Amino acid sequence: MRAAGGAPPRPSAESSADRRPLAFFLLVLLLSLPFAVAGWLTGAMLLPGLPVAAMQAVCPAVAAVVLVAIRTGRAGVAAFLRRAFTAWPRGVQWPILLLGPPVLLAVVWLLQRALGVPVPLPGVDVGRIAVLFAVFLVSAVTEELGWSSYALEPLRDRWGPLVAAVVIGLAWAAMHVLALVQAGRDWRWIAWWVVTTLALRMLLVVIFARTGGGVMGVSLFHASYNVAWQSYPESGSYWDPALVGPVFAVVAAAAMVVDRRRRQGAVA
């Protein structure tokens, strides 16, 4: 009901159909620009291969919260955040999410050795890994609140998981290109990194669906992936997207096929 002379009440929550992915992507890119400028001005690195511009990881969460708040106010933001943190991984999903990325990068390491690349054994520093995981988990949550919890469902409902993964993956990659240039990466390296990013997003789309649509499942895998590449030999300097991309793409394609068959079986 509408009070006399007043504005209509805002809904307390919004459906995925109410979300605006294009506005979200544009707002993320706009919010990320100051971090890119800071990276150019300082030239500083947070970690090896990780410039100051990487702090733009907060932008997807900020963009999502802003857009939800505009449509539904504080109550809508609270509902959005509650829903994002309701579903958690269960049982065997935990080791898959935490160990999947390092296992895949171990396969890449074996391929490099088979190809004659003199890549050394990775060092295992448990303390450093724990600190990196804590830091990367926070940044993964802020990213996935936007990419997965806000943008994924309207795109997936309209065009399916694969197209949704490609669209979000390209937007995700676009946000990082300036940071990669600041880190001194050449365009060949960046092109293969984009392939890797698209494959990773395909896996995250499947994980989002299989873990109940919550942010924690995708964030755990995302954080584990970042820790794995930072822990690769020589602080990731031997990490080669020309090999990582194809390995992740094969696994992502297989995961998409299996997920599609499961969904078709559930409907039948």
Q: How would you describe this structure to a colleague?
A:
- The protein is mainly α and 268 residues long.
- The chain has one domain.
- The chain has helices at residues 21-42, 59-84, 93-114, 126-159, 161-182, 187-210, 215-230, 241-267; strands at residues 45-47, 50-51.
- Strands 1-2 form a two-stranded antiparallel sheet.
- A hairpin with a 2-residue loop joins strand 1 and strand 2 (50-51).
- Helix 1 (21-42) packs across helix 2 and helix 6 (187-210) packs antiparallel against helix 7 (215-230).
- The longest helix is centred in the middle third of the chain and has 34 residues, at 126-159.
- The chain is globular, with a radius of gyration of 19 Å.
- Residues 1-12 have low confidence and may be disordered.
- Keywords: Hydrolase, Membrane, Transmembrane, Transmembrane helix.
- The chain crosses the membrane at residues 21-41, 53-70, 91-111, 159-183, 189-208, 238-258.
- It comes from Agromyces aurantiacus.
- InterPro entries: Rce1/LyrA-like_dom (IPR003675).
- Pfam families: Rce1-like.
